[in-house]
């Protein structure tokens, strides 16, 4: 498929999460205990059952991350709204670009929380969220700017089409088709873009390339995720000012969880996320044990890398798919 595979940050950085005991919502801790009818290595649930399992177990972290994400998007929403009142698309776009500097890292923190839940990883939510926010801040700025700018233009186009229709002027079928395709295709791209921003250490251009390849290879999942995002945010916007309360209560966590649940299996299949995270953890554990007991590496052992390069299409470890060496 030609998907390039970058590095995953070391275990113990983005991938540590233990039980959340903040108690904002009832958790499902009792269901973690072994009991009659519960197998030790039972496969993960899927579909609606998986959704309610994560909500019951990790609702506290997702809800609090949602509140912080809303705060991160508050500047861009206010600035874009000023441009909207001025009926000036240029001001709206510039406002989106400025506001995206903070909105991107905030949304990355939301995705980080949801992806930990999907991997059933342990960690204190606030500790891991704070570390992930700092670590993702720089890498999430450009995606945040692009995301906020694109969404702002999309909102303007939809408003323009319906406003013209309201005043008795139809913009024409080509304009409607272009607007709908713009919404669907770009949100298909975003469905695979944000998980990579959080999970993989790579240039943004490579993230976009991989996202495009993934949305083509897994078209039904990408389309389903895109439709969920469009319908959800469409309802939120149509219900304004009630939509503000919907954002605070459901907002980003609901849409992010559902979309990630749809596409996470594809991302893990391509980049082997969980497998390589486990390898990194094992490597760190071996290094810690050797350091503690004063043992040196074996003669036939290889040094433990600081990060792992995913190279499904490369010839040798350490090479990217275009043949260059990292």
Structure description:
There is one protein chain. This protein has helices spanning 47-85, 89-118, 125-166, 173-199, 204-217, 219-238, 242-249, 251-271, 273-293, and strands at 7-8, 200-201, 308-309. By secondary structure, it is mostly helical. α6 packs across α7 (242-249) and α6 (219-238) packs antiparallel against α8 (251-271). The radius of gyration is 22 Å and the shape is globular.
Q: How would you concisely characterize the structure shown here?
A:
The chain is mostly helical and 326 residues long. Helix content is 68%, strand content 2%. Strands 2-1-3 form a 3-stranded antiparallel β-sheet.
Overview features:
mainly alpha; disordered C terminus; 68% helix
State the strand order across the main sheet: 2-1-3
Mean pLDDT: 79
Question: What composes the largest sheet?
Answer: 3 strands, antiparallel
* Distance between the first and last residues' Cα: 21 Å
Number of H/I helices: 9
Q: Share of helix among residues?
A: 55-70%
Overall outline: globular
SSE inventory with pairings:
Blueprint: E1 7-8, H1 47-85, H2 89-118, H3 125-166, H4 173-199, E2 200-201, H5 204-217, H6 219-238, H7 242-249, H8 251-271, H9 273-293, E3 308-309
Helix pairs in contact: 1-2, 1-3, 1-8, 2-3, 2-4, 2-8, 3-4, 4-5, 4-6, 4-8, 5-6, 6-7, 6-8
């Amino acid at each position: 498929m030609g998907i390039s595979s970058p590095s995953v940050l070391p275990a113990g950085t983005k991938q540590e999460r233990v039980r959340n005991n903040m108690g904002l919502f009832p958790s499902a801790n009792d269901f973690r205990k072994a009991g009659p009818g519960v197998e030790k290595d039972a496969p993960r649930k899927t579909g609606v059952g998986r959704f309610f399992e994560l909500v019951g177990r990790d609702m506290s972290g997702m809800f609090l991350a949602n509140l912080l994400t809303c705060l991160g998007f508050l500047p861009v929403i206010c600035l874009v709204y000023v441009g909207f009142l001025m009926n000036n698309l240029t001001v709206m776009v510039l406002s989106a670009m400025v506001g995206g500097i903070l909105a991107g890292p905030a949304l990355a923190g939301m995705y980080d929380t949801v992806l930990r839940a999907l991997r059933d990883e342990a960690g204190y939510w606030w500790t891991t969220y704070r570390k992930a926010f700092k670590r993702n801040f720089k890498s999430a700025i450009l995606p945040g700017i692009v995301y906020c700018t694109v969404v702002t233009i999309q909102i303007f186009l939809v408003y323009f089409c319906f406003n013209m229709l309201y005043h008795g002027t139809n913009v024409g079928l080509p304009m409607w088709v272009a607007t709908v395709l713009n919404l669907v295709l770009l949100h298909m791209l975003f469905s695979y873009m944000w998980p990579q921003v959080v999970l993989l250490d790579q240039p943004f251009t490579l993230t976009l390339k991989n996202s495009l390849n993934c949305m083509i290879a897994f078209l039904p999942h990408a389309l389903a995720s895109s439709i969920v995002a469009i319908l959800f945010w469409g309802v939120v916007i149509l219900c304004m000012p009630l939509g503000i309360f919907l954002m605070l209560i459901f907002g980003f966590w609901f849409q992010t969880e559902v979309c990630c649940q749809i596409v996470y299996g594809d991302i893990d299949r391509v980049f082997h996320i969980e497998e390589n995270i486990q390898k990194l953890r094992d490597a760190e554990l071996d290094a810690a044990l050797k350091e503690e007991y004063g043992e040196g590496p074996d003669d036939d052992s290889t040094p433990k890398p600081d990060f792992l390069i995913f190279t499904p299409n490369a010839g040798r470890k350490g090479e990217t798919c275009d043949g260059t060496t990292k």
